[in-house]
Amino acid sequence: MPPAHTSPTRWCYAALVFWTALAAAVSSEQPLQPVKKASYSPGQAIPVSCLNRTIDTGEHIQDEKGQLQYIPFPTCNETNRPLELYFGVEKGKTSNLFNTNCTIPFITDEFFHLLEFYIHNDAPLTCRIPARPLSGGETEVTSSPSSTSDDYIPIIFALAGNLQKSHVHIANNLNILLHAAPRATHPGVIDSATAYSISPLNRNTRIVIGDALPLRLSIRWYPTTNLPSGWTGVGGHLFVSTFVYCALCVGATAACCLVYFRAVEFPQKLRRYGADRMGGDGGAGGPRGGLGGYGYGVGNGYGFAGGNRGAGKFD
C-alpha cells in the first residue's frame, strides 16, 4: 500500500491541542507561598525553661546527642505550674497590682547549691522563652542545639544577694523587661528579654534548705526595642517647662514680697514717720522737738521734752 500522507490540517490541529493543554497546565500552577509562622496573641502564655546544671560545679548538662538540656522553671505555688509569662500583659493571674507572685514552695538541697552559684555569678540562671508559639501546642522543649536559635530568646535572671555559711540572702524582687518585635514587620513575636534583682541591700529574704522562696516579679512589655526615656533626676534634661516654672516661681515670690511691703511694712513705716514728725513740742527746736528737729529736745529738767513734766529730776 502507498504510504499515507498526513494533511496539514491534522498537524495544525495537533499543535493547537498541545499548546492549549500546555497553557492550561501553566495557568493552573500556583506560586509558592511563604510558610506562615505562628505568632502570639495578647495574653497568650509563654513558658519559661532554664538550663539544667550540675550541683557540683554548676556546669551545664548535655543530653545523649550533645545538646544543651533545658528544664522547666521551678513550679510556682500560686499556679502549680512552672513560671509563665503572658504576651503583652504586665499583670499575671497571681498579681498584686503589677507584681506577679511566684513562690517556690520548697528549696531542696540541690536547688540551694544552685542558688549559691546563681548569686555568686559562677553560673547564671540562664533561661529562655519561645520567640513564637511552639508548634503543635507544645509547651516546653528540653533540649536545643543553642539557646539563641531562631526559635528561642535567651532571658538571664541576674539574681543578687549575699552568701553566708548556713544560709543565703536573696533579693527576691525582680524586674522582667520584654521587648516585642515591631508590629509592622513581625507582629506577635518576642525580640529580647532580661530579668534582674532590685534593691539587693534592703529588700531581700533569708533562705535555708527547706524554706519557700517567694519571688515578686514586676513585668514590663515594650512594643519596640527602644526604651522610653524616663530619667529626670540629677543631670536631667532642661525643657521649656523648666524655665516657665522658674519664671512663675520668681514672679510669685516678687508678688508676695510686694503685697507684704504695701500692706504691712509700708503702713508701719508711715505711721512711725508721722508720729516722729508730730511728736513733742517742748524744748529747743520748736514743735519738732529739741535741737532744730534733730534728736530729742532738752526740757527744764533732766528728762525728755514733750509735756508739762516740770523741773527737777524724775527717778
Structure description:
The protein is α+β, with helices and mostly antiparallel strands and 315 residues long. It has helices at 8-28, 109-120, 240-277; strands at 45-47, 49-51, 68-72, 75-76, 81-82, 84-86, 95-96, 99-104, 125-130, 143-144, 152-158, 161-163, 168-170, 173-180, 190-197, 205-207, 213-222. The strands form four sheets. A ten-stranded mixed β-sheet has the order 7-8-17-14-15-11-9-2-3-10, with no helix packed on it. A three-stranded antiparallel β-sheet has the order 12-13-16, covered by helices on one side. A two-stranded antiparallel ribbon has the order 1-6. A hairpin with a 2-residue loop joins strand 7 (95-96) and strand 8 (99-104). The chain starts with 7 loop residues before the first helix and ends in a 38-residue tail after the last helix. Residues 281-299 and 303-315 have low confidence and may be disordered.
Specify the structural class: alpha+beta
Strands of the widest sheet, in order across it, are 7-8-17-14-15-11-9-2-3-10
Low-confidence stretches: 281-299, 303-315
Order of helices and strands: HEEEEEEEEHEEEEEEEEEH
